[in-house]
Design goal:
Layout: E1 2-8, E2 13-19, E3 24-32, E4 39-45, E5 53-59, H1 64-76, E6 88-95, E7 106-107, H2 110-118, H3 127-140, E8 145-150, H4 160-163, H5 169-175, H6 184-198, E9 207-212, E10 216-222, E11 225-229, H7 252-260, H8 264-273, H9 276-281, H10 286-294, H11 298-322, E12 327-331, H12 332-337, H13 339-346, H14 358-362, E13 370-371, E14 380-383, H15 388-400
Parallel strand pairs: 1-6, 6-8, 9-12, 12-14
Antiparallel strand pairs: 1-2, 2-3, 3-4, 4-5, 7-8, 9-10, 10-11, 13-14
Helix pairs in contact: 1-3, 10-11, 11-13
Bound molecules: adenosine monophosphate (AMP).
Protein name: Acetate kinase
Pfam families: Acetate_kinase (PF00871)
Enzyme class: transferase
């Protein structure tokens, strides 16, 4: 069976069609600038194979339905069709926020759509986009089973003492204010991959997963269950990120209001868009930061140190919370590709059982699962490439096939 994976942003739509027998990606693409004067699709048929064909489309798309309709045309017809419409067996949607209602992937029906709508207030930038994708797919692929796979779901097992904030309890009851966590599909995927690599049942695998990409988060997984994660009610909490601050003193809001005359919305925007790596050195892509460091940029050096220190700090906290851990797993754009970050982040962790092997760390091969700890390290350290699309497809396929 082929599963179509959809990941919608407010003006974008990413997709992959995956053959679940072979896990081959039949096509992948991204549609950008939906709703603008001119839109764009970059479509790859049979990506990464000798038969790869790249198609570029530039035309306006009024909404997500128009964009998905055009993508469906590229998938099933035109210059490089990869499957017939009838061969799309199921559709898996990335939905960011499932609140407390969805701790598992869920077949989409009208009641599920209504519940996802309720969580728009918790993810105002993301859930409405996910809903637009669901609406588009419902119109274009009537009769095809659609499944919602939630970013928050893997964190559904976090215990109350770890997910509650120490604020009046009524606010949790009334508004659902608590830690939810994000990137759950990625954390779950690499934790499961680790259990396969170690040859252990997932239910007996404990690890700290470190997702360092555009957004950064960590999770503590005890015996296959997530017991803590660094993001909170929103994806602003926790680690330092490209443009997001991560943890700051919550009294920053009134302080900035008083001393800079900023509104709550302006402070929120400052913490989300002007902070993190960018706030310290003006650059938010780690590759640019390394280039600047090489040219002697002291602020770029400081930004890297701060970024790594936060990672160290959380790994230490999660090792303490886990009371026994098989491995620390680095993943996503920075985690997979940046040996300097991994080296700095693990530098001071030898005393608590995380010993990194410099040669292995710097000798890693891009895209491959690699052990980068020393042989005598009590806690192993791995690079495991994430694959959120495959995880969404796998969860969708399993649900549709009653597994
Ligand atoms: P992701 O969100 O997982 O796609 O990660 C994107 C981020 O990964 C980019 O913003 C870069 O900062 C970072 N990145 C990608 N490739 C590299 C690399 N070779 N070295 C360091 N950072 C990288």
């Amino acid at each position: 069976m082929n599963v179509l994976v959809l990941n919608c942003g407010s003006s974008s739509l990413k997709y992959q069609l995956i053959d679940m027998d072979t896990h081959a990606v039949l096509c992948s693409g991204i549609t950008e600038r939906i709703g603008e004067a001119m839109g764009k699709i970059t479509h790859k048929a049979f990506p990464g194979t000798p038969g790869q064909k790249v198609l570029n489309v530039e035309e306006p798309f009024a909404d997500h339905t128009a964009a998905l309709g055009r993508c469906a045309g590229l998938i099933t017809g035109g210059e490089a069709p990869v499957a017939k419409a009838s061969e799309i067996g199921a559709i898996g949607h990335r939905v960011v926020h499932g609140g407390e209602a969805f701790k598992q992937p869920t077949v989409i029906d009208p009641a599920v759509v209504e519940t996802i709508k309720k969580f728009c207030k918790l993810a105002p930038l993301h859930n409405p986009a996910g809903l637009m994708g669901i609406e588009a797919a419902t119109k274009l692929f009537p009769g095809v089973t659609q499944v919602a796979v939630f970013d928050t779901a893997f964190h559904g097992s976090i215990p109350d003492y770890a997910y509650l904030f120490p604020i009046p309890f009524e606010l949790y009851e009334e508004l659902g204010i608590r830690r939810y966590g994000f990137h759950g599909t990625s954390h779950g995927y690499v934790a499961k991959k680790l259990s396969q690599v170690l040859g252990k049942p997932f239910e007996q695998t404990s690890c700290v997963t470190v997702h360092l990409g555009n957004g950064c988060s960590m999770a503590a997984v005890k015996n296959g269950q997530c017991v803590d994660t660094s993001m909170g009610l929103t994806p602003l909490m926790g680690l330092m990120m490209g443009t997001r601050s991560g943890d700051v003193d919550p009294s920053l809001h009134p302080f900035l209001a008083e001393n800079k005359g900023l509104t709550i919305q302006q402070v929120d925007s400052l913490l989300n868009k002007q902070s993190g790596l960018k706030g310290i050195c003006g650059l938010n892509d780690m590759r640019d930061i390394h280039a600047a460091r090489e040219n002697g940029d002291k602020k770029a050096e400081l930004a890297l140190k701060m970024f790594c220190y936060r990672v160290t700090h959380y790994i230490g906290a999660y090792l303490a919370a886990l009371d026994g851990c098989d491995a620390v797993v680095f993943t996503a754009g920075i985690g997979e590709n940046d040996p300097d970050v991994r080296q700095h982040a693990c530098e001071t962790l030898g005393g608590i059982g995380v010993k990194i092997d410099k040669e292995r760390n710097y000798g890693f091969k891009r895209g491959q699962i690699t052990k980068i700890s020393t042989d005598d390290s009590p806690v192993a350290v791995y690079i495991i490439p994430t694959n959120e699309e495959l995880e969404i497809a796998t969860q969708t396929y399993s649900l549709v096939n009653g597994k």
